[in-house]
Amino acid sequence: MAGKPPQGDPVQDAPQVAGPKHAAAGLPAIGHTLRVAQQQMGVRRTALTLLRVNQKDGFDCPGCAWPEPEHRHTAEFCENGAKAVAEEATLRRVTPDFFAAHSVADLATRSGYWLGQQGRLTQPMYLSEGADHYEPVPWERAFDIVAEELTALDSPDEALFYTSGRTSNEAAFLYQLFAREFGTNNLPDCSNMCHESSGSALNETLGIGKGSVLLDDLYKADLIIVAGQNPGTNHPRMLSALEKAKANGARIITVNPLPEAGMERFKNPQTPQGMFRGAALTDLFLQIRIGGDQALFRLLNKLILETAGAVDEDFVREHTHGYEAFAAAARAADWDETLTATGLERAKVEEALRMVLASQRTIVCWAMGLTQHKHSVPTIREVVNFLLLRGNIGRPGAGVCPVRGHSNVQGDRTMGIFERPAPAFLDALEKEFGFAPPREHGYDVVRAIGAMRDGKAKVFFAMGGNFVSASPDTEVTEAAMRRARLTVHVSTKLNRSHAVTGARALILPTLGRTERDLQGSGEQFVTVEDSMGMVHASRGRLEPASPHLLSEPAIVCRLARRVLGHRSPTPWEEFEKDYATVRDRIARVVPGFENFNARVAEPGGFTLPHAPRDERRFPTATGKANFTAAPVEYPKLPEGRLLLQTLRSHDQYNTTIYGLDDRYRGIKNGRRVVLVNPEDARELGLADGSYTDLVSEWKDGVERRAPGFRVVHYPTARGCAAAYYPETNVLVPLDATADTSNTPASKSVVVRLEQSTTN
Ligand SMILES: Nc1nc2c(c(=O)[nH]1)N[C@H]1C(S)=C(S)[C@@H](COP(=O)(O)OP(=O)(O)OC[C@H]3O[C@@H](n4cnc5c(=O)[nH]c(N)nc54)[C@H](O)[C@@H]3O)O[C@H]1N2
Ligand SMILES: Nc1nc2c(c(=O)[nH]1)N[C@H]1C(S)=C(S)[C@@H](COP(=O)(O)OP(=O)(O)OC[C@H]3O[C@@H](n4cnc5c(=O)[nH]c(N)nc54)[C@H](O)[C@@H]3O)O[C@H]1N2
Ligand SMILES: [Mo]
């Protein structure tokens, strides 16, 4: 199956391959950081801006949701945080002239990388029905257009209000309030595609859909299992925490189909010794097959049950429910089946067991490698079973640690961005604001796409994000978006969702985290919640990218006034003028935020309560922590097929592409690559450097094709392949989702590799 590189964008289609690295960060990372930052921001702005990241009087890094340590370095950011900042604080600008020069059809042919590189959006832009180009539009007219389309709907449920995870607590709270006063719970968010499986599993078993550990717990743990996560790229500051945990005596097990450089060795750029030699992080690497994690944890649970004295019987008796049914299921686990499902050698599992039994304080960390499979919810429940068995919930140094993605995705959910809100939350809203919120559940991301496709939803409004590129089944999603009457994006940067529009479309440019937010009552700050439930303030200092930008809270308040008019008893004007008045309301609606303004004024903010962590209290249906006993599942591959995971390179933030290299995996100057185990490649006749199409096979009989990928022989687990998102989203069928959470199964796509059709 040899072939030539496909025709097309010459920059993107010329990958060079040098093989994986075995250490992350160190000096090269600093060099990259400064180079990227200075290209976008210049030297002076780079220095001023990067020193403000994650400082107590600065802004929250718009990168990941990893928490800030108590003792901060002057430079409390990482290479990829700096890229996220540079991308936002860039001096490049997209002006009305740019839109005059590029039609929407032209923009739709451009790569996401090219679109992002054009710079910051500067003015509200409107695409009228039948027009080829966006044109500048005054803010008031833009709100009129949204109001026209919203009021023309037959039902409020024909509108969709999407949220990406960078939105502040204040903006998120106002946004959900507006959607619910308008009359719908259609609040799909990026979490539906991300940690929804974690939320589903944890809510049911522990009574709260969030992690149960703080940074200090990581430092106290004696065993940390990192499963399905690539922190070297996606949560680089987590490596410092793991390094510190190791220095305190912790051991680390890494569970991943790929050997990821960051988990092998970390060269801490903040310490002189770390810079050059670095610390080995992983003690035991379990190179698991994609989707084998539930089987692995089930077998470990069986082995724990069979070891005298290994179960924490007091904890199980006092705090849990469902033990008998779970234990019966776990005892039935089968070695042979587990070794097939996981692709692991018996000796490795036995070594893991020894480490587990030697541990008094175990933490399991995970991210998308566990959440984006059909059986993700039972997989994460099995992780909970594993921790419950030895009493590893609600004591120092132990617990669940789902590592969240977007910097405020957890906070947005806390603020009520959820299509299935808890009745208690709606009751509190009703009491505080004096209106009757809708009670029926709304659409999540996948159902929202279906609703647009079927003509049941007609207005799509996005608070951030890049819905078209982030969602599964790109062709279906794009066709669905094109059926909408109106698509609206509140955005900082240009992306593909601006080029795939409804009959009418609006781009509403907004302030980023790094920028000063001046309102009627003076300079404002906003708040965010990190992955560990810590809430703190974020203050931008830079001059806004353009004088025409409005903040996200201001956009919501003005839109609400325009759409709801006198119908709304809510003081939207006051909220826009002074965000402290929004926080006063949050304090009365959302548990844990009592006295919000005073507490967030403390340097470093405050920690939200977490009943299982703080008092071993489990607010579940049974009032106990629930063991569960789902049947073990794992993907079964037809002959000659591979299981494809769609993941992130080192040079991207979700659909924002910073550059074309994936340094730690040794790939340069190209993104259309597919990583295949050399033995599988040999069996399939796929030479390294040859070009192939990825064809996904799904029960609907539709063949989804992503053409022209360079084959890279790479040490991934047998039967598995990996390629970057979002280029491969076209392969993920809309209805290939996780049971219960409905999260797209973007980490387990059955594909066949076929001779390239593009050359
Ligand atoms: N720089 C940067 N930072 C980011 C992001 C970014 O794009 N760029 N995105 C942010 C967001 S929104 C999120 S959600 C997080 C994502 O953070 P991650 O979840 O780390 O991101 P992915 O690249 O999707 O990596 C998934 C990892 O899981 C492994 N994996 C895949 N399938 C399996 C499996 O079946 N079992 C196991 N055990 N492992 C598996 C993959 O090999 C890979 O190492 O990062 C956040 N931070
Ligand atoms: N195949 C596949 N698909 C996936 C995933 C995967 O692993 N594989 N991962 C999924 C995951 S975990 C997630 S979280 C989603 C991400 O889905 P999204 O959150 O929708 O996507 P992003 O790429 O993060 O959004 C980038 C855009 O956000 C806008 N933006 C940036 N900062 C701001 C801001 O401060 N305010 C506003 N209003 N806009 C801003 C910019 O215009 C930028 O173009 O993708 C999901 N899709
Ligand atoms: Mo995410």
Summarize, please.
With 759 residues, the protein is an alpha/beta fold. It is built from 32 helices and 33 strands. The longest helix is centred in the N-terminal third of the chain and has 15 residues, at 27-41.
What's the number of extended β-strand segments? 33
The CATH topology of the largest domain corresponds to: Dimethylsulfoxide Reductase, domain 2
CATH class of the largest domain: Alpha Beta
User: What does the oligomeric state look like here?
Assistant: single chain
Count of DSSP-assigned helices? 32
| Order of strands in the sheet with most strands | 6-5-18-17-16-7
Domain Molybdopterin dinucleotide-binding: 642-749
Keywords: 4Fe-4S, Iron, Iron-sulfur, Metal-binding, Molybdenum, Oxidoreductase
InterPro entries: Asp_de-COase-like_dom_sf, MopB_CT_YdeP, MoPterin_dinucl-bd_dom, Mopterin_OxRdtase, Mopterin_OxRdtse_a_bac, Prok_molybdopt-oxidoreductase, YdeP_MopB
GO molecular function: 4 iron, 4 sulfur cluster binding; formate dehydrogenase (NAD+) activity; molybdenum ion binding; molybdopterin cofactor binding
Task: Explain how this protein is built.
- The protein is of the alpha/beta class and 759 residues long.
- The chain folds into 2 domains: 127-193 and 408-604, Rossmann fold (3-Layer(aba) Sandwich); 195-403 and 641-759, 3-Layer(aba) Sandwich (Dimethylsulfoxide Reductase, domain 2).
- Helix content is 36%, strand content 18%.
- It has 32 helices and 33 strands.
- The chain has a 6-stranded mixed β-sheet with strand order 6-5-18-17-16-7. Strands 25-32-29-31-30-33 form a 6-stranded mixed β-barrel. Strands 12-9-8-14-15 form a 5-stranded parallel β-sheet, sandwiched between helices.
- The longest helix is centred in the N-terminal third of the chain and has 15 residues, at 27-41.
- The radius of gyration is 25 Å and the shape is globular.
- The two termini are 12 Å apart.
- Mean pLDDT is 94; it is low at 1-11.
- The structure holds ligand MGD (2 copies) and molybdenum atom.
- The site of molybdenum atom has 4 residues, from loops.
